[in-house]
Amino acid sequence: MKPILLQGHERSITQIKYNREGDLLFTVAKDPIVNVWYSVNGERLGTYMGHTGAVWCVDADWDTKHVLTGSADNSCRLWDCETGKQLALLKTNSAVRTCGFDFGGNIIMFSTDKQMGYQCFVSFFDLRDPSQIDNNEPYMKIPCNDSKITSAVWGPLGECIIAGHESGELNQYSAKSGEVLVNVKEHSRQINDIQLSRDMTMFVTASKDNTAKLFDSTTLEHQKTFRTERPVNSAALSPNYDHVVLGGGQEAMDVTTTSTRIGKFEARFFHLAFEEEFGRVKGHFGPINSVAFHPDGKRGRCQKRRHRRAQTAPTVALPQTPMTVGTGSPAATRSPGRGERDGVSPC
C-alpha cells in the first residue's frame, strides 16, 4: 500500500489523532495551525485558525462535533468541528501541554506547564455549565507541585485521568475528588506519550529512557517492556492484533550531525506478549514525534521530523498492521486559496 504524504504544516508535528470513526485525522504542530484531513485519501478538509503559538495537543469528542486544542499561547480552545467556529477560549498562565474529552464529551481536562513561576495544574471544565466557560473557572483544579505533566489521557469510564510526568512517574487522579489514586514509577526519564488500548483496559507509555511500557489502566500494574536504543517519543497499540508500534529516534538537536541509519528513525513493531521486535518501517529523515493506529486496524499514520526541508511525515499504511506515524518534520507550506476565511479553510 502506497504511503500518503500530507503537506499542511510549517514546523515539526507535535500530535496526530483520529476521531472515533477514523474518517478524520487531526494534526497539530509547532506552528499555530490545526489541520483536519480526510483519512482515506489525505485530502485536507480545513484548518482551525486562532492560536498564536505552537499547538501541543488535540482531541475530538465521541461524535466528532467538537475539537479541543491546547497551545503554547497560554490557551485551550474549543471548536465546532464542522464549521471551524471557535466556541470557547480558556486562558491559562502557562502553555497547555495536554487536553482531552471524557467518554461522554461533556467534561474536558487540560494540563498546563510548570514555567514562568507558575506551577503545573490539571483543570476540569463541565461544558454543560456555561458559567464555568464564561468565567474561566474550572469545577476542579489539581496542583502538581513536584513534576510537570507531559502526557495525560482519560481512564476507563471517565472516572479518572492517567498522567505521565517529567520525572517518569505515572499518577492516576480521581476526576471527582482530584486525589491521587495510584502512583507508580517504572520509567527513569520523562514520559513523552500515553495511548490507551481500544477497550481501555491497557495503555502504553513512551519515554526518553529508550523504552515503551505496557500498564493495566485500573491498577497501573506494569505488564510488558519494549526496549530500543533511542528515546521513544510515541507508542500505539493495534486495535486488532497483539502489536505495538514505537516511534522516536535520536534527539532533535543531534539530527543534523547524524546519518539516517545511525539516527534510528524507523517505526518499529513489537509483539505485545513476547516483547520481541518483528518489523521496521524506514523512510523518515528525523525523529518520529507521533504514531497512531486507525480505529479499524486496517490503516495507520506516522508523522515525523525532517531537518533539511519542510515536509510533513508520510502516512504509513501496512496490511494487517495499519498505523499512522507523525514525524517531527515540518509540513510543507501552502498559500491560502481564494475564498478561504478564518475557521475552516477548504483545500
Automatic annotation (TrEMBL):
Its main location: cytoplasm. Residues 337-347 have a biased composition (Basic and acidic residues). Residues 321-332 have a biased composition (Polar residues). Keywords: Cytoplasm, Initiation factor, Phosphoprotein, Protein biosynthesis, Repeat, WD repeat. GO terms for biological process: formation of cytoplasmic translation initiation complex. One of its GO terms (molecular function) is translation initiation factor activity. It is found in: Cytoplasm. The keyword Cytoplasm applies. PROSITE patterns: WD_REPEATS_1, WD_REPEATS_2, WD_REPEATS_REGION. Residues 300-310 have a biased composition (Basic residues). The keyword Phosphoprotein applies. WD repeats lie at residues 6-47, 48-89, 184-225. Residues 296-347 are annotated as: Disordered. GO terms for cellular component: eukaryotic 43S preinitiation complex; eukaryotic 48S preinitiation complex; eukaryotic translation initiation factor 3 complex. Component of the eukaryotic translation initiation factor 3 (eIF-3) complex, which is required for several steps in the initiation of protein synthesis. The eIF-3 complex associates with the 40S ribosome and facilitates the recruitment of eIF-1, eIF-1A, eIF-2:GTP:methionyl-tRNAi and eIF-5 to form the 43S pre-initiation complex (43S PIC). The eIF-3 complex stimulates mRNA recruitment to the 43S PIC and scanning of the mRNA for AUG recognition. Belongs to the WD repeat STRAP family. Belongs to the eIF-3 subunit I family. This is Eukaryotic translation initiation factor 3 subunit I. The gene is EIF3I.
